[in-house]
Design goal:
The complex is a heterodimer of chains A (365) and B (557).
Chain A: H1 2-5, H2 12-25, H3 32-41, H4 61-94, H5 113-142, E1 151-158, E2 161-166, E3 171-174, E4 176-180, E5 190-196, E6 201-204, E7 212-214, E8 220-224, E9 230-236, E10 248-254, H6 256-267, H7 277-285, H8 288-291, E11 315-316, E12 321-322, H9 325-333, H10 351-362
Parallel strand pairs in A: 1-5, 4-10
Antiparallel strand pairs in A: 1-2, 2-3, 5-8, 6-7, 6-9, 9-10, 11-12
Helix pairs in contact in A: 2-4, 2-5, 4-5, 7-10, 9-10
Chain B: H1 17-26, H2 31-59, H3 70-104, H4 113-136, H5 167-195, H6 208-239, H7 253-287, H8 294-307, H9 323-335, H10 337-351, H11 360-383, H12 385-391, H13 395-425, H14 431-457, H15 474-504, H16 542-547
Helix pairs in contact in B: 2-3, 2-4, 2-15, 3-4, 3-5, 3-7, 3-13, 4-5, 5-6, 6-7, 6-8, 7-10, 7-13, 8-10, 10-11, 11-13, 11-14, 13-14, 14-15
Classes of the chains: A alpha+beta (365), B mainly alpha (557).
Chain lengths: 365, 557
């Protein structure tokens, strides 16, 4: 919690939350198990800190507003639990049948209006408090105005991969989203427009924001303003078909210069490498180009991911495999080996064509 | 009255007595036999749905497991959810209502015995239709295929374009057919309670069991109707070129969600209210006190019924409703917690000052109270819609509703089994096996579903057939799966108890628990006509009055 408590980006909702931050800090001890697990998983295999998918390790204002509210709700429900459990436990222990009671019935009590009133009114008051606290966060997250300099991304859900379009920047890419870090003194939030071309999906990167569904014919909107750089993970959360499990999401939060460099690289047309011309012919002669686009070439299919800068991505198949030569080769030869049920057909190329087209892919930087 | 519809008399049983017996069970219109048919068929599907759950849990035991293919996994969770809700929970609760309501209100049968039989067979054949999909799901196209679109079948995944073949048709038709069965049963319960109460049993003298089932039946009428309408619309989409939910042609995916959840949320209360009914009978008897705050319990139940009709979109907080809609459904969902809390307090009030006997039905009831408390509190967490934007569609929500359905409904049901089995069979269930069942199931339940909250908090979505090793979900999932097997073991103990006690259990007598409602005044099992002479009651606890003529309840009501 303390990590971001100093962040003030001038937005109204930020100041509205501060009181709760103070409240929640005192209750960190209650949630120690969650914090310790988050710390455990926040360290990658090589010992370097990395970002995970823990909802209590927020790195962006929406996720942080939610985490603060969540702790408030956890504390209230925790108190209710302790009180009611104590009553239950006490009555089970205290009023158990004892040997000397055999054959005698206890006093027959039918009820009490005062007690009924008490346990109606107190919960009602608790509900009022919880509702008001919640409504404030709903408004702060959902009704935040979009600043004119915000980065805009259109996210399009496909069975089973993500298409990302940057309409202001003229970029089309897939599965690995790049967004700028948002500096508290100079906020650069990213607003996402969520669409789907087929079934329902849901965009969920727990450390950046709550999830929002991508529903055909029902455009949605969400925003993030990550406060630290690094790769954030997530995945499709709404069951979308056979390979729902491997519709993974990588979000790279870049520093301002890194992001600018990435944008410049993505805006360039596909690299023309004369050495890979044989592979390019295979790509354009077969069905590959019906579904995939490579900028600056006749290939402009839109059914599958845009491959113009394929090699700038660290994974293929929506995060199902690392982007290595062997995996690319296996994927083109038999996608079901990596992702059974994927909509990409097995291309059944001969070995020479397969090697050529993989070599061509590897030139697409 | 219904005296003219008691089943065929025991005819000549000369040549093949079992054929005669079978014929009597298949052709019966006796509410007690139909109740038992409901319960036995539900137990059968409980085992089937449980095996599906175990397949799911084996697959998720560790990351990148290959126990089943993604296609099979998706079929398993679809069939598990559909089976457990529609062909286990509803039928078993209808079975208890069928068996007990006429006995408790002093009637000789349900109001419409033939409708009763018709409703049971509709729901039973609905279940068979769903399972026939394993053989016939792809029809002419080839081998069988069960539905794999999830138990909500969210549009447009259930449309022809994304669910070709016939598996979704089996799902749709199965729910449509069994839905009509549920409506028939609901009409029957309402008519029975309103028209067939014995002399003296005014509405405010009915056992809470009857009251709560009356409310449940009213909710079934309201909740099942939109589900059936939606299934018909889906069929029109799939076969007659309709576009209700066909997003490719301008239809609305969100419309389906509304139809489904305006059924789906009241459905939760349709399932839990009969369990409240079990609790409201069992807890007083084993605390040796009358229910605390009877009129408040009735009012709270009716209140839950009304409010729960306006909470459905809390299943849809992530679909991008505007902030006003999200606030409204946050408020209604939190409000429904108030009458639910009142019920928990009243049960504790019933135990307070009592002499609690820890027989197996009471153990399960205390388990119910503890787990339902936690389930209610995690429900409050998800009612706070921003919290739900994180928790919804994750394993946290799976843990939450299993806490309600297993920790709440199933525990209450086990209590009901141990409590009323003697009445239904004339034999007691074994107490020692019952305690084994209780403790094994309690340990397995908490191992599975307590731990299951954590992967949800750590970002694990539901309905994924596998997950990445780097996410840190492996150990947790392994523990969850171990718990599932302990629960399965407990179910085996339970089934063994049901079978062994049927033949070897102690004789129950009319009234083994020294209880107070009318079903305990007749023999175990009761005769076909229930009551030789229709009883007359003067209070809520007619058998208390009978046993304590010096201090009857009727003096205070």
């Amino acid at each position: 919690m303390a990590r971001n408590s100093g962040v003030k980006n001038g937005r109204k909702e930020m100041s509205a939350r501060r009181t709760k931050s103070v409240l929640s800090r005192g209750w960190q001890i209650v949630l120690l198990p969650f914090w310790s697990t988050s710390a455990l998983w926040a360290v990658g295999p090589d010992g370097t800190p990395s970002n995970g998918t823990n909802i209590f390790s927020p790195a962006s204002t929406p996720a942080k507003s939610i985490a603060d509210l969540s702790i408030f709700v956890l504390v209230i429900t925790g108190i209710i639990f302790v009180v009611v459990f104590a009553l239950l436990f006490y009555s089970v222990v205290k009023f158990r049948m004892r040997a000397m009671d055999a054959g005698r019935e206890p006093a027959q009590v039918y009820g009490s209006t005062q007690i009924e009133l008490a346990w109606t009114i107190i919960p009602t008051l608790i509900v009022v408090v919880l509702f008001l606290a919640t409504a404030r966060v709903i408004h702060a997250v959902q009704d935040a105005p979009e600043p004119s300099d915000a980065v805009e991304v259109t996210v399009i859900g496909h069975q089973y991969w993500w298409e990302f379009r940057y309409p202001k920047l003229g970029i089309v890419t897939a599965n690995e989203l790049h967004i700028p870090v948002s500096n508290p003194s100079h906020p650069t939030p990213t607003f996402l427009q969520l669409l789907s071309v087929d079934t329902d999906h849901s965009f969920w990167a727990p450390e950046l924001a709550g999830k929002t569904d991508l529903i055909p014919n029902h455009p949605n909107r969400m925003w993030v303003d990550p406060q630290r750089t690094g790769v954030f993970l997530g995945q499709c959360a709404q069951y979308c078909g056979t390979q729902h499990a491997k519709m993974l999401l990588r979000i790279s939060v870049d520093g301002p210069e890194d992001f600018a460099n990435w944008v410049r690289a993505q805006q360039r047309p596909g690299v023309e490498d004369a050495g890979a011309i044989a592979g390019r012919r295979v790509f354009e002669r077969n069905a590959c180009m019906n579904c995939h686009a490579v900028g600056g070439t006749p290939a402009d299919g839109r059914f599958g991911p845009d491959l113009t800068h394929l090699m700038s991505r660290t994974t293929i198949a929506a995060g199902a495999a690392e982007n290595t030569r062997d995996n690319l080769r296996l994927w083109i030869q038999n996608p079901s080996a990596i992702k059974p049920g994927s909509l990409m057909p097995a291309m059944k190329l001969n070995v020479a064509d397969l090697d050529a087209v993989v070599s061509y892919m590897q030139t697409l930087h | 009255m219904s005296s003219n519809v008691i089943t065929v008399s025991v005819g000549q049983t000369d040549a093949k007595p079992w054929v005669d017996e079978l014929h009597q069970w298949l052709a019966t219109v006796d509410h007690k036999r139909l109740g038992i048919l409901y319960i036995v068929s539900a137990l059968m599907f409980l085992v089937i749905g449980g095996v599906e759950a175990l397949i799911i849990r084996i697959q998720l035991m560790h990351s990148h497991n290959n126990f089943v293919s993604p296609e099979v996994f998706n079929r398993m969770f679809t069939m598990h959810g559909t089976t457990m809700i529609f062909f286990v929970a509803m039928p078993v609760l209808f079975g208890f209502a069928n068996y007990l309501v006429p006995l408790m209100i002093g009637a000789r049968d349900m109001a419409f015995p033939r409708l009763n039989a018709f409703s049971f067979w509709l729901s039973f054949f609905g279940a068979l239709l769903l399972y026939f999909s394993f053989l016939g799901g792809s029809g002419l196209y080839g081998a069988g295929n069960a539905p794999d679109v999830g138990w909500w079948s969210y549009a447009p995944l259930g449309a022809q374009a994304f669910s070709p073949g016939h598996s979704s048709d089996y799902w749709t038709l199965s729910l449509l057919v069994s839905g009509f069965g549920s409506i028939g049963t609901a009409i029957n319960i309402i008519a029975t309670i309103l028209c067939l109460r014995c002399p003296g049993m005014k509405l405010n003298r009915m056992p809470l069991f009857a009251w709560l089932n009356l409310v449940m039946a009213g909710m079934v009428l309201i909740a099942i109707t939109p589900l059936s309408a939606a299934q018909i619309m889906l069929l029109i989409d799939r076969y007659l070129g309709g576009h209700f939910f066909d997003t490719q042609a301008g239809g609305s995916a969100v419309l389906w969600m509304h139809f489904f959840w305006i059924f789906g949320h009241p459905e939760v209360y349709v399932l839990i209210i009969p369990c409240f009914a079990f609790m409201s009978e069992i807890i007083p008897v084993f605390s040796r006190k009358p229910i605390f705050g009877y009129p408040v319990m009735v009012a709270a139940t009716v209140c839950i019924a009304f409010v729960s009709m306006s909470v459905w979109a809390h299943h849809m907080f992530t679909i991008g409703m505007n902030s006003y809609a999200n606030s409204f459904f946050t408020l209604t969902t939190m409000v429904v917690g108030v009458p639910t809390g009142i019920k928990i307090f009243n049960w504790i009030g019933t135990m307070w000052g009592g002499r609690i006997q820890f027989k197996t039905p009471m153990l399960f009831s205390i388990g119910f109270l503890f787990q339902f408390l936690i389930a209610g509190l995690t429900g409050i967490m998800m009612a706070a819609s921003p919290f739900d934007w994180q928790l919804s569609l994750s394993y946290f929500v799976v843990a939450h509703f299993h806490y309600v359905i297993v920790g709440g409904i199933l525990f209450a049901l086990f209590g009901a089994f141990y409590y009323w089995y003697p009445k239904m069979t004339g034999r007691m269930l074994s107490e020692s096996l019952g305690k084994w069942h209780f403790w094994l199931f309690l340990i397995g339940f908490h191992l599975t579903f307590d731990v299951m909250h954590v992967p949800g908090i750590l970002g694990m979505p539901r309905r994924i057939y596998t997950y990445e090793p780097s996410r840190g979900w492996d150990t947790l999932n392994f523990i969850i799966s171990i718990g599932a097997f302990i629960q399965a073991l407990a179910i085996l103990v339970f089934v063994a108890n049901l079978i062994v006690s049927y033949f070897k259990g102690d004789k129950a007598g009319n009234d083994p628990w020294d209880a107070w409602t009318l079903e305990w005044s007749v023999s175990s099992p009761p005769p076909a006509y229930n009551f030789a002479t229709v009883p007359t009651v003067a209070s809520r606890r007619p058998l208390w009055d009978h046993k304590h003529p010096e201090d009857p309840d009727s003096r205070y009501e």
